[in-house]
Design a protein that fits this description.
- The chain is elongated.
- Strands 3, 4, 7, 8, 9, 10 and 11 form a seven-stranded mixed beta sheet that branches.
- Helices cover 26% and strands 40% of the residues.
- The protein is built from five helices and eleven strands; from the N terminus they run H-E-E-H-E-E-E-E-H-E-H-E-E-E-E-H.
- The protein has a domain at 58-77 and 87-164 and 173-263: ABC-type transport auxiliary lipoprotein component (Rossmann fold, 3-Layer(aba) Sandwich).
- Helix 3 (95-104) crosses helix 5.
- By secondary structure, the chain is α/β, with parallel strands linked by helices.
- A hairpin with a 2-residue loop joins strand 1 and strand 2.
- The protein starts with a helix and ends in a 10-residue tail after the last helix.
């Protein structure tokens, strides 16, 4: 019975400890040295498949997104539990998510996106092409840049932390388990502006929840006729990515802009036979 009890404790400890180990694809060995291969990098797809499946536009509107046109207005820093870090709470390049959402809407058949984020580098390269052609007495004409009729701007308005939290747990005969959760909220705004008039044509606000979940398990048991105490603890936590939540909010906002633009006849869906 003593060995059976120890075997049970060993098995339980293995289960508890395995709950907090990272996921990996394989445990390989090269040159006699074992190492863990973490999950491989993957190409990110749109989080909102409805945006990808909207019908194409009858005439693609040309949209420009300038640097710093999507601002972080929260001023918040990453939290370390007891103090704030120097790193900001969200990415400082949300324009990348916005451009991606526009380019992949209707599988790339809804918007034309004019490059403005790297406009300085683009202008220098065009000047280099023009000067090189003139040096070798070639035709120096360079095609004109794509002109945008619309500007898309936005901002992260707030990140509200711990707006809802809770948990539950149970314990019986020295074996316990508990689960906790926390909900944060990110709010963004998007606005579509007419270049010709400066009028704000469409403005939307989007909220997105960010969920964090933690699971913990513990076991304590007296052995050797109550003279020794065995304690085992384990746990794991899963936090939703703030960047992915921001991407989802931006994609939802772009989808809403498309729907509002259709209702106001700013553009039309292409008729499918």
């Amino acid at each position: 019975m003593r060995w059976a009890g120890r075997l049970i404790l060993l098995c339980l400890s293995g289960i508890l400890l395995s709950s907090c180990t990272p996921r990996y694809t394989a445990l390989l060995e090269e040159g006699g040295i074992p190492y863990i291969v973490i999950e491989k990098a993957s190409i990110l797809d749109l989080q909102n498949q409805e945006l990808k499946n909207v019908p194409p536009a009858k005439r693609k509107p040309v949209v420009a997104i300038y640097p710093n046109s999507f601002l972080d207005q929260t001023g918040q820093r990453k939290s370390n539990g007891s103090f704030a870090l120097f790193s900001t709470a969200i990415t400082q390049a949300p324009e990348a998510f916005l451009i991606r959402a526009l380019k992949h809407a209707a599988n790339g058949e809804f918007f034309q996106v004019a490059e403005r984020v790297g406009l300085d580098s683009l202008t220098k390269e065009r000047q280099l092409i023009r000067s090189t052609r003139q040096t070798f007495e070639e035709e120096s004409a360079v095609k004109p840049l794509l002109l945008a009729g619309l500007l898309l701007q936005g901002a992260v308005l707030s990140i509200d932390t711990n707006i809802r939290s809770g948990g539950m747990g149970a314990r019986y005969l020295g074996i316990g388990s508990s689960k906790e959760y926390r909900e944060d909220l990110i709010t963004i705004s998007l606005r579509l502006v007419s270049v010709s008039t400066g009028e704000v044509l469409i403005e939307v606000l989007v909220n997105k929840s960010i969920i964090s979940v933690g699971l913990s398990q513990d076991l304590f048991r007296f052995i050797s006729n109550g003279t020794k105490l065995v304690e085992i603890e384990g746990g794991a936590a899963e936090n939703e990515s703030t960047s992915i939540a921001l991407q989802q909010a931006i994609e939802e906002g772009v989808l809403e802009i498309i729907k509002i633009g259709i209702s106001k006849r700013y553009w039309q869906y292409e008729k499918v036979n």
